[in-house]
Specification:
Helix content: 55-70%
Number of helices: 6
Strand order of the largest sheet: 1-2
Shape: rod-shaped
Strand content: under 5%
Order of helices and strands: HHHHHEEH
Structural class: mainly alpha
Distance between the termini: 144 Å
């Protein structure tokens, strides 16, 4: 029994050292690794696509009101569910080709507060590591009341002078003709 324990402890320690070796890190971006990540990504999207419905209901409720969040978020979630399922099926069909992820965030649980976006489809992954494209959402603009325009004084002095002169001329002519 002690021989088995010694072998087991030696095997565990060797496994721990092998996990931290540079050769293991370099193999992370091999062809097999990329296709394995793509397979895991597609199966995860197939299994968790339905989570887009409550995710969008919560996000839309936080952005507006609860009623619109439930109704509008459900429809938005159904559309994104269909999108994730389509992306998952496309990833399964093109499994041998290491392509970049189409849906961002890659997994639904990564950035739960960010809306799902869809990038370029079937982009060949020639990079050494798969990095999701950053998705930056701009905060909704806060409505602010516009300042009323300051009244601009109108210079009527020339018009008033001409009008006054006409009145005076007509009065003078009336008085003179009598």
């Amino acid at each position: 029994m002690t021989k088995f324990n010694r072998f087991f402890i030696t095997f565990v320690i060797a496994g721990l050292f092998a996990m931290n070796s540079p050769a293991g890190i370099a193999d992370d971006q091999s062809y097999g690794s990329k296709t394995g990540q793509k397979a895991a990504r597609s199966f995860a999207n197939l299994c968790t696509a339905w989570l887009e419905i409550p995710k969008n209901m919560i996000n839309v409720s936080n952005q507006s009101n609860v009623f619109y969040g439930i109704v509008g978020g459900m429809f938005k979630g159904l559309v994104h569910t269909a999108g994730r399922l389509g992306v998952a099926v496309a990833d399964l069909i093109t499994l041998p080709l290491p392509t970049q992820p189409i849906a961002h965030p890659i997994y639904i649980w990564e950035d739960f507060d960010i809306d799902t976006t869809y990038g370029d489809a079937f982009r060949y992954d020639s990079s050494q590591n798969i990095q999701p494209q950053p998705v930056a959402t701009e905060p909704a603009p806060v409505p602010q009341a516009a300042q009323p325009a300051a009244p601009v004084p109108v210079d009527d002095s020339e018009f008033i002078k001409r009008d006054t002169n006409r009145k005076l001329d007509s009065m003078f002519q009336n008085k003179m003709t009598k």
